């Protein structure tokens, strides 16, 4: 046996340290983010951009508007941690036709990656039709992608004045709020969605992440379990469930969740690293070493 290798992995602490150095700050993983920003989800779903109907199904991720109902809040953060509402009850105005030429032009520009042109077209449309919720939502996604989160929140606030109970808008606003560390406010938006739609997987997933950021592990577990029951194929939800279970010392449950995340996303270094941590805690150092090594390999380091 290679004695140098034995010395290198002589303790679980050493193994964990080496693996952590390689992936600890990998801020973004495909589909394994902390709170996904609206644009992250939008990009995953393009084309087409978000839909603003009330039926929900996949971010928080935030998504661009589509003409059917699935909705999306979330960037990824490391396994260890990196919105005020009172929306006025406004009467919903009649929305402009979805095939408005400016709206179509803006969506096409966004799909091509020409965000400047898309933003200009959305603004032109909103100058003429301030109540166009989809245009305002999609403009918010563009602003968020550019790092203008205050601008994105302003647009989402205005959209919610027009449509106060729109689940898509609430999920997207929660995503932006979460990305700025305003977890309590993000939680309020998400709870509003869940109140009306208890199986909204986007809201369940994102509130699970928000609660982990606040250290409320048991509450996070309840929501994340419902998220994976609703959408068993979501690797990120399994990863965060494993992380939360590990924090409450449910090691068997954590290992199962991390392993499920890896089944769904084999090149997920954080889930592999999570497996290594749990195996170390279960006094299975040889298996932990293998998991750490795989984590290092898939992270490309």
Commentary on this structure:
With 301 residues, the chain is an all-alpha fold. It has helices at residues 3-8, 12-23, 38-45, 101-112, 115-128, 133-145, 149-162, 167-179, 183-196, 201-213, 217-230, 235-247, 251-264, 269-281, 285-298. The model is unreliable at 1-9, 22-34, 40-61 and 66-98 (pLDDT under 50).
Please give a quick description of this structure.
With 301 residues, this protein is an all-alpha fold. It has helices spanning 3-8, 12-23, 38-45, 101-112, 115-128, 133-145, 149-162, 167-179, 183-196, 201-213, 217-230, 235-247, 251-264, 269-281, 285-298.
List keywords for this structure.
single chain; 301 residues; mainly alpha; 15 helices; 62% helix; disordered N terminus
- Terminal-residue CA separation: 24 Å
Radius of gyration: 21 Å
Residue share in helix: 55-70%
Please state the average pLDDT score.
78
Q: DSSP helix count?
A: 15
Give the topology.
Layout: H1 3-8, H2 12-23, H3 38-45, H4 101-112, H5 115-128, H6 133-145, H7 149-162, H8 167-179, H9 183-196, H10 201-213, H11 217-230, H12 235-247, H13 251-264, H14 269-281, H15 285-298
Helix pairs in contact: 2-14, 2-15, 3-6, 4-5, 5-6, 6-7, 7-8, 8-9, 8-10, 9-10, 10-11, 10-12, 11-12, 12-13, 12-14, 13-14, 14-15
